[in-house]
Design a protein that fits this description.
alpha/beta; Rossmann fold; 5-stranded parallel β-sheet; 7 helices; 5 strands
Length: about 130
Amino acid sequence: MSEPRFLLDSNILIYLLKGVSKRAREHVETCDPGELVTSAIAFAEVMRGIEPEDRVQIEGARRLFGLVAVLPFDIDAASAYRRVPFKRGKFDRLIAGHALALGLTLVTNNTEDFADVPGLRIENWTL
């Protein structure tokens, strides 16, 4: 199993779950097992958007998160978050801190939301 390289943002996870971005899926398919991870923050955002009675989406999420490990938001992530420019009400800031703490490239379709974060490597796999 490979070391993590990419932290997937919630919007990319949603695109994968709903099958709406062929390009994102193609990128994922080129990655080795273990290279893709996500933050517990992004996991919470994705799961919040799934209705509890939607068995199809729940099963899809179970399969997706079987391939994309969910990493805990820990003390290192919280410490890195302190260095991220603050924007109230933005989970993106926590996700950015998590990617920085882990030294991973953040994969997102919302590159403009993260453009002001010093040192954060960003890729958009939907283009």
